[in-house]
Amino acid sequence: MSHLQTMQITIVKEQPDSPDALRLLSELDEALWLHPYPPQSRHAFTVEKLLREGVAFFVARIDTEPAACGGLKIFGTDYGEVKRMYVRPVYRGRGLGKAVLNHLAAYVQQKKVNVLRLETGI
User: How many whole angstroms separate alpha carbon 19 and alpha carbon 102?
Assistant: First the structure.
């Protein structure tokens, strides 16, 4: 039995400026700045842009602790694009990233979108 099966996982749609979302996004930004990505490879939406662009944003919790997040920007019925996905280091390797991605995929399918993309840098 995996460790995640003994914990309660919930994935809830939230505003990206909620306290838990802000905490996760701040940690993600700190982690990303540790990598030497060139400016043209940095595509991260700010919290303000997530809100302005209408990104559907989700926070995953294990028990009651915020553990991961991910967002989706939907482009009509053409495709959805994954935005700001992050799993806290302490929760990595337990399948939580896959759970969030599956949740995002199910969400876009409910919106009649069948393509999910992740924009990456060079």
Answer: 24
**What are the structural domains of the chain?**
3-117 (3.40.630.30)
Q: What are phi and psi of 26, to 5 degrees?
A: -65, -45
Cα–Cα distances (Å) from 76 to 48, 81, 108, in that order, read 21, 11, 10
Task: Write the pLDDT tens digit of every residue in 34-92.
Answer: 877 776 666 678 899 999 999 999 999 999 999 999 999 999 999 999 999 999 999 99
Q: Are 20 and 47 in contact (CB under 8 A)?
A: no
Task: Name the phi and psi angles at 98, rounded to 5.
Answer: -65, -40
Alpha helices per DSSP H over the chain: 19-33, 47-52, 96-110
Distance separating alpha carbons of residues 9 and 59, to the nearest angstrom? 10
